[in-house]
Amino acid sequence: MEEYKDVINVKDLCEILNIGKNTAYKLLKNNDIPNRRLGKKYIIPKFGVIEYLKGVQL
User: Has this prediction a pTM greater than 0.85?
Assistant: First the structure.
């Protein structure tokens, strides 16, 4: 995860979690992963993705 900036986009989120865009947008719209909208784009703090991964049941 160190190769990613502190703020990522949906494409990066898909790569990190190995998920499709539809699933990524669902996670963001449900606020499962902290995010902000900037116009039409989602701004996602990397620490939010890390916290999400800590809480996921495997």
Answer: yes
Q: Which CATH class is domain 7-55?
A: mainly alpha
Structure tokens at 54: 């800590």
Cα–Cα distance for residue pair 44/54, rounded to 1 Å: 16
* Contact between residue 52 and residue 16 where contact means Cβ atoms under 8 Å apart: no
Domain ranges of the chain: 7-55
Q: Say if CB 25 and CB 41 are below 8 A apart.
A: no
Q: How far apart are CA 3 and CA 20, in angstroms?
A: 20
Give tens-digit pLDDT for 1-15: 899 999 999 999 999
Residues 39, 23: Cα–Cα separation, whole Å: 20
Rounded distance between C-alpha atoms, residue 18 and residue 39, angstroms:
25
